[in-house]
Amino acid sequence: TQLLEQSPQFLSIQEGENLTVYCNSSSVFSSLQWYRQEPGEGPVLLVTVVTGGEVKKLKRLTFQFGDARKDSSLHITAAQPGDTGLYLCAGAGLGGAGSYQLTFGKGTKLSVIP
Amino acid sequence: DSGVTQTPKHLITATGQRVTLRCSPRSGDLSVYWYQQSLDQGLQFLIQYYNGEERAKGNILERFSAQQFPDLHSELNLSSLELGDSALYFCASTGGGSGANVLTFGAGSRLTVL
């Protein structure tokens, strides 16, 4: 069974601060996705990283996929209250044609205080 | 609005009862996935259907069953409910081709078993 560990589990910071959340596994993934989930809503895809060492930027969010494709990080610069939410990483297994199964971490709950 | 519709949004029932959750995928999407989200387990993959046929099974209990109908909507049936079945149940859909790796989630159905 592939497991994804996310840390920290909870994070409360002041507006304007920077933060990094981590997603680690002992398994290799073909790709890794980051989602954000707000209360009462389903997860919404932020980014997909595919290549080991890949870095993607989405405005103030920077996503990195580890060289060995086992881990990933999400860095937020100058956090805003609108960044508040549950951040989930999800790994896609190797193989399994025809079925795109994701293994989700338990998430990092971020609160950005104005 | 993600385009994936789930009903009901909230459901309260008693132990031993049976409920049906419904999902209409995004227009054009052939695959439907069901996930269960609880506080301690995070998002757990239950089952996937593709164009009416079961494609993959995850951690789905024998008391649970699902199907996808010719119009592509899907239903998740939960029977002999237990307190531990209280959770958010999400449906997600994916398109074919280049969109096969992008899960679009509905807003979820919150089930409370008393």
Can you walk me through this structure?
The complex is a heterodimer of chains A (114) and B (114). With 114 residues, chain A is mainly β. Chain A has no helices and eleven strands. In chain A, strands 2, 4, 5, 9, 10 and 11 form a six-stranded mixed sheet that branches. In chain A, strands 1-3-8-7-6 form a five-stranded antiparallel sheet, with no helix packed on it. In chain A, a hairpin with a 2-residue loop joins strand 6 and strand 7. The relative contact order of chain B is 0.33. The chains are: A mainly beta (114), B mainly beta (114). The interface between A and B is medium-sized, with 22 and 26 residues.
Keywords:
heterodimer; A: 114 residues; mainly beta; 5-stranded antiparallel sheet; B: 114 residues; 7-stranded mixed sheet; 4-stranded antiparallel sheet; 11 strands; globular
Write the layout of secondary structure elements.
The complex is a heterodimer of chains A (114) and B (114).
Chain A: E1 5-7, E2 10-14, E3 19-24, E4 31-37, E5 44-49, E6 55-58, E7 61-65, E8 71-76, E9 85-92, E10 102-104, E11 108-113
Parallel strand pairs in A: 2-11
Antiparallel strand pairs in A: 1-3, 3-8, 4-5, 4-9, 6-7, 7-8, 9-10, 9-11
Chain B: E1 5-7, E2 10-13, E3 19-24, E4 31-38, E5 42-50, E6 53-57, E7 64-68, E8 74-78, E9 87-94, E10 104-105, E11 109-113
